[in-house]
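Give me structure tokens for this 219-residue protein.
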Amino acid sequence: MEQSSRAERKTKRRKTNRILNTAIAVVVLLIIIVGFTIFAGGNNDEEPAAPEETKQDQTAAVSDEETEEEPAQSEETGTEDESEPAETEEPAEEEQTEEEPADEEVIVSEGTDPNVEEDIVNPNWEGVGTSQTGEHTSSFETDSTDWQEKEQALAYATGIPLSDMTVWYISGDGPQAAIGTVSPKSNQDEAYRVHIEWVDGEGWKPTKVQKLEENDKGR
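Here you go.
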């Protein structure tokens, strides 16, 4: 009886050991499977993440490049804007061109001398020009160049054409000045006394015209 009991105990132990060994093997196998699954799955999850990070890095790099390029474009635009005025230099120069001085108003005042109706002074009068050279000497010879240039100055001051002007009188008013009395041939009662002066290089220049109340030099 005791031997059979021992045999049964050994058999039970063997079965128990087998069961335990089998259970341990199963557990170990499960651990290995689970560990492999976790390890393999973790690698699969982590590996795709690398390209995403790379893409993000690349996107960030592209954004940085675009940001760096934008100031460059802005700088180029600024350079172009700064160069635009150079294209408009000609109009600017035209604006800076000196304008010709405007004509000054003619001054007409009541005459203060006897037989003078009014005095006329035109600040815009200029010399009539001359063909004479060298030191100037006023001449009262009617066929001289100086006399003819005096007549031109009298006509210029009064606006009477030479062909329609009667010269009644020309006399000296100092070494380089003269006075002449003229009237239009069509109306000899309309008379003017003209003061002229010599300007070197410019010829005779009117300085004042006096409109007379009556022709005091008429014959």
